[in-house]
Design a protein that fits this description.
Radius of gyration: 18 Å
Distance between the termini: 40 Å
Number of helices: 14
Strand content: 5-15%
CATH architecture: 3-Layer(aba) Sandwich
Structural class: alpha/beta
Bound molecules: NADP nicotinamide-adenine-dinucleotide phosphate
Order of helices and strands: HHHEHEHEHEHHEHHEHHHEEH
Largest sheet: 8 strands, mixed
Number of strands: 8
Helix content: 40-55%
CATH class: Alpha Beta
């Protein structure tokens, strides 16, 4: 009965993604992590200066973790860290300044991080962006592609040793329900959102494409790291009232405001995944503490040829090993 209701919520989208969905599912979803579940463990949250990432850092602190908060703006990050230390004096909070969309910055930061941190138990690729006009990263990639896919990919690659050394780590890619509207592109113009939208660049469509790419690459990373007991998942948080939504989707924010989840609710599944490490089947996509399909309706999953082409392109363009 609950399975049917759960599925009906998912298919309805509005009910499932809003705070109604989590309020109902809370009655039957798996148990919360034990208190202190992350004591003695280290987690890193990207995009921790706002919304879901900031809430996630607090929830990880509540479970006893040492929390590395990563942001691109040093002043904003210092303020978030100051508040977190004030509210959770027992928590070790470490500030990590890095622009995830700048691959050189990620490489420089990762070299420093791996010199300081021998073992990392949780990594959440949460940083996210949406732009009205097509913008490019310092390396000339479409900005959403750089922030959501290429930066996190390079970070996963370079943090491989501390993740493997944890003896049971989890990596979570924060995707979006918006990815259901997008297919995995079949070529580089699609990845880079160049000339693929009729009438010019469409920020919402470009965002959805990169969020689809996150689900695909997370599944590939899950295979790649399984032998080191590093679990890799992707998820969507539902509709969450955050500064990001208010800024980038003002009309959506205005219409859905009464039913938007709060940031803690949006962070819940990522925190639960890292703290409980549930067993997980490919393609490892989650929402509200349950695995979900990666396509809706009769649309099939991505073509394996497109998946392979995409993964090889990511490796080539980031100069990382193509060991898929
Ligand atoms: N809210 C929702 O309903 C919703 C739904 C589906 C998916 N999501 C996903 O959830 C994640 C968090 O979103 P949110 O709603 O909490 O948005 P938000 O309030 O805008 O927070 C986004 C965070 O990402 C950071 N960020 C952006 N670009 C970055 C970069 N280049 N390097 C480092 N950090 C960067 C931002 O830093 P600054 O503070 O410096 O801007 C901020 O901390 C995103 O991946 C988003 O796609 C959200």
């Amino acid at each position: 009965m609950t399975r049917l209701l759960d599925r009906a919520l998912d298919r309805s989208v509005v009910l499932g993604y809003s705070k109604v969905g989590s309020a109902l599912r809370r009655r039957w979803w798996p148990a919360d992590p034990e208190p202190g579940a992350l004591a003695g463990k280290r987690v890193l949250v990207t995009g921790a200066t706002s919304g879901i990432g900031e809430a996630m850092a607090r929830s990880f602190a509540d479970l006893g973790a040492s929390v590395h908060v990563l942001g691109r703006n040093g002043d904003k990050l210092a303020e978030v860290a100051r508040q977190l230390r004030l509210d959770k004096p027992a928590t070790e909070v470490v500030e990590e300044v890095c622009d995830v969309g700048d691959l050189d910055a990620v490489r420089g930061w990762a070299a420093d991080f791996t010199g300081r941190v021998p073992a990392l138990h949780g990594l959440v690729h949460n940083a996210g962006t949406m732009t009205e006009k097509r913008e490019e990263s310092p390396q000339g990639h479409e900005l959403g592609l750089a922030v959501h896919v290429l930066g996190p990919h390079v970070m996963s690659e370079l943090l491989h040793n501390p993740l493997a050394a944890a003896g049971g780590a989890s990596v979570v890619w924060m995707s979006s329900g918006g990815m259901y509207s997008a297919r995995l592109p079949a070529d580089v113009d699609g990845y880079e959102s160049r000339g693929v939208d009729k009438g010019g660049y469409n920020g919402v469509r470009a965002y959805a494409r990169t969020k689809r790419m996150q689900v695909v690459i997370a599944d590939a990373w899950a295979r790649r790291l399984a032998a080191q007991d590093v679990r890799v998942e992707s998820m969507h948080p539902g509709w969450v009232g955050t500064p990001g939504v208010a800024t980038h989707l003002p009309t959506f924010n205005m219409i859905t405001k009464p039913v938007l989840r709060d940031s803690e609710d949006g962070a819940d599944t990522a925190v639960w995944l890292v703290a409980t490490r549930p067993s997980s089947e490919p393609p490892h996509f989650w929402h509200d503490r349950a695995q979900r399909p990666v396509t809706m309706g009769r649309r099939g999953g991505p073509d394996p040829v497109d998946v392979r082409r995409f993964l090889l392109w990511v490796s080539e363009t980031t100069s990382t090993p193509a060991t898929w």
